[in-house]
Specification:
Helices cover 24% and strands 32% of the residues. With 364 residues, it is α+β, with helices and mostly antiparallel strands. It folds into two domains: 175 residues, FAD/NAD(P)-binding domain (3-Layer(bba) Sandwich), CATH 3.50.50; 142 residues, D-Amino Acid Oxidase, subunit A, domain 2 (D-Amino Acid Oxidase, Chain A, domain 2). The strands form three sheets. Strands 5, 6, 7, 13, 14, 15, 16, 17, 18 and 21 form a ten-stranded mixed beta sheet that branches. Strands 1, 2, 9, 10, 11, 12, 19 and 20 form an eight-stranded mixed beta sheet that branches.
Length: 364
């Protein structure tokens, strides 16, 4: 039986990007439970790169990833607006204060400028924070790029390989899948997304409290159709966001409902709440809900991602808890995690990042 240097569980953006970074330095196996890579969170992303998304501690990962994503042609300029009512001026000012000094680019704008950007905006929306650098991400393109790089460097991707047991001894990990297939590896890497704590328990490693949260998105046909140049529009109070997509509107109630790991399905109540909130923003008429879907966003207890070897079991590594920003941070996150696992120095992409901020040792 081949013994791999690294066995990565999960072939979404996390597993695919890390495999591509590790493969030039060792043998890599990727085990994916589903029929195809990216079935869950990666394939259901709302697909944007936004400098402030995830909080100030995520900004360095996002900014470090931006040049790579642009150079490879995966970003298309969109712009973003965090909008607020008169009563929410304090929230807008708090946003400016919170992200000031992070390197993110934004400015405060008033009602006149805001109304010129969002046609049909209702009168009680009076201010915003404008982020000009926000961009759409070609999610499938990024994911396929990493899968292709991995193949080029000899990564073995095995689908329909749901891990059932993972046992460790002095020779490494013995991994058995539900269909009886067996694999061996020196290091087991947890890129299992919503199933990260499940895999940890299976491997006899203390779980970190990584919680899947349900996020709902609906595609609407509206009258008028959303302008193609409309930016990503987010509520400063966190109640919705929407963006244009091929003549339609993608709308989310920005829900975060705790849920067990599963094949996520949208909830009708969440779609109805999203529509109700949107109707309070513009005077557009909603003609139809054409699609609805949901994905799982998984967070650690402090809402920061977890990269690195487990302090109690160094042969088990974490690359999980990436919330809703795993795709927009994937280049820098995968590079940093690979450097940590391989004991390599940081490079130009990761020089400004603090690995300790994301290391599992922070949980004691």
């Amino acid at each position: 039986m081949t013994r791999y240097d690294f066995a990565i569980v999960g072939a979404g953006i996390a597993g695919a990007s890390l495999a591509a970074e590790l493969a030039p330095h060792g043998s890599v196996l990727v085990l994916e439970a589903e029929d195809r890579p990216g079935y869950h969170a990666t394939g259901r992303s709302a697909a944007f790169w936004e400098e402030c998304y995830g909080g100030p501690e995520i900004v360095p990962l996002t900014l470090a990833s931006g040049p790579w994503l642009r150079e490879h042609g995966f970003l298309s300029r969109r712009g973003a607006l965090y909008i607020g009512r008169d009563s929410e001026t304090a929230l807008l000012e708090a946003f400016v204060e919170r992200f000031g000094g992070t390197g993110a680019r934004f400015e405060r704008i008033g009602r006149e400028a805001l109304a010129a950007i969002v046609p049909g905006l209702r009168e009680d929306w009076t201010g915003a924070v404008w982020e000009p650098a926000c961009a759409d991400i070609d999610v499938a393109g990024v994911h396929q790029h990493y899968l292709q790089v991995g193949r080029k460097h000899g990564v073995e991707l095995v689908t329909r390989a749901r891990v059932e047991t993972a046992a460790y001894d002095d020779s490494g990990w013995a991994i058995t899948c539900a269909d009886g297939r067996q694999f061996a590896a020196r290091t087991l890497v947890n890129a299992a997304g919503a199933w990260a704590d499940t895999l940890a328990r299976m491997a006899g490693v203390r779980p970190l409290g990584i919680q899947p949260l349900l996020r709902t998105v609906a595609q609407l046909r509206t009258d008028p159709p959303p302008p193609a140049e409309l930016p990503l529009v987010l509520d400063i109070a966190g109640r919705f966001y929407f963006k244009p997509e091929a003549g339609r509107l993608w709308l989310s109630p920005h829900d975060e409902t705790p849920i067990e790991p599963c094949d996520a399905a949208p909830e009708e109540l969440a779609v109805a709440e999203a529509i109700d909130r949107f109707e309070q923003v513009t005077d557009w008429r909603i003609e139809a809900v054409e699609r609805r879907w949901a994905g799982l966003r998984s967070f650690s207890p402090d809402r920061l991602p977890v990269y690195g070897r487990d302090p109690r079991q160094p042969a088990f590594a974490w690359f999980a808890g990436q919330g809703g920003y795993g795709i927009q941070t994937s280049p820098a996150a995968a590079r940093l995690a690979a450097q940590c696992l391989l004991g390599l120095p940081r490079d130009a992409m990761t020089a400004g990042l603090d690995p300790a901020l994301y290391h599992p040792a922070r949980f004691g």
